[in-house]
Amino acid sequence: MDPIVLTKKQARRFILRKQGLLGDYKFDGNEGIISFIKQAGCIQFDPIDVCGKNAELVLQSRVKGFKKTMLYDILYKERKLIDYFDKNLSIMPVEDWKYFERIRESNRLYGRGHDEVDAVAEQLKEFIATHGPTCSKDIDFGQRLEWYWSTNTNLTRVALETLYFRGDLIIHHKKGTIKYYALAKDYIPKEILAETDPYQDEFEHLKWRVLRRISTIGLLWNKPSDAWINIWNLKSAERNHVFDDLQKEGKIIAIKIEECKEPFYCVSSDLELINEILENNEYKERTELIAPLDNMMWDRKLIKELFHFEYKWEIYTPIVERKYGYYVLPIISGENFIGRIETIHDKKNKCLNIKSIWLEDGVKQTKKLQNILDTCLKRFAEFHECKDVTYSDNYYM
Q1: For the chain, what is the HEC assignment?
Q2: What is the CATH architecture assignment of 111-187?
Q3: How does pLDDT run across 122-178, given as a tens digit for each residue?
């Protein structure tokens, strides 16, 4: 089968339609949250909250009527979603638990503080069984260890997190940034816990994970990429083998994009959407603020290649080296990134402050554009339940 040929414009449209960012909202309410996360496989969680946490920002740009409490309730009350590791710490459907037994088993066998955790594991689980959801402040083992996030961490936190990594515990709920843990067997359905990994063969498991990441973004190329983060053993040779097998099995389709040297790939189930794009339909344009760790942004080199937009999350960049700001969100309007914005949610005063807006070269500051942005920012303020939107002096940079 000859590769399907798309223009860059068509490729952009395909990704945006797949992501639910072009045309009318295709994800709506609670069911829309679950539907998008099932399509994406997972969304990344990050605790930093300047203008919304990353997972909330991903959903507010796609799900009509999204409120932060909706995600919290589906996670910690309905428990149709779960926190665990996919592309780093993520939120995924609880039904996907079975695919990550490898990660849990690895943490049972290895890891920092392994022996110290084993020594208190049963005592900690008995405490949780008796007292209910537990945080690191509720019990003190009187010992501190070097841990992944700190060189001086109390053993309780290390043990809670390790038993969570191993699958003995789940995150029951959160109060701010404090996590409360409960026994997994009390909250994950027995039939899900009893399921075995469908891919006992390591290579078949790799294929499943690569296929999932391609579907997450819409289009991906066979190149080193941040899109592959946390897929173990995916070196160049293995990745080539995976792509060859997936193509031979008809699970992915090669896409040739004009002006691009490298071939791209989509999952075969997206062929209908590809054909829709090839029919040259026009779509309703939306303007949305995109999360720093948004699924669509996982391969920023791909975004630069197809959208001619270069983005770096500068949160860990020293202040003197930042080109833009601490927590800056890309702005997409229609089929193009038109700029980026730094907003701050003033929770005390229930106000959304627009600190800076940087427009891309060639994007003119017009009254029409201002009206489009005002509408977008009003909706963003409603997502934060803000009463007012304020603009800093000289907010256009």
Answers
A1: CCCEEECHHHHHHHHHHHHCCCCCCCEEHHHHHHHHHHHHCCEECCCCCCCCCHHHHHHHCCEECCCHHHHHHHHHCCCCEEEEEECEEEEEEHHHHHHHHHHHHHHHHCCCCHHHHHHHHHHHHHHHHHHCCECCCCCCCCCEECCCCCCCEEHHHHHHHHHHHHCCEEEEEEECCEEEEEEHHHCCCHHHHCCCCCCCCHHHHHHHHHHHHHHHHCCEECCCCHHHCCCCCCCHHHHHHHHHHHHHCCCEEEEEECCCCCCEEEEHHHHHHHHHHHCCCCCCCCEEECCCCCHHHCCHHHHHHHHCCCCCCHHHCCHHHCCCCCCEEEEEECCEEEEEEEEEEECCCCEEEEEEEEECCCCCCCHHHHHHHHHHHHHHHHHCCCCEEEECCCCEC
A2: Orthogonal Bundle (1.10)
A3: 999 999 999 999 999 999 999 999 888 888 899 999 999 999 999 999 999 999 889
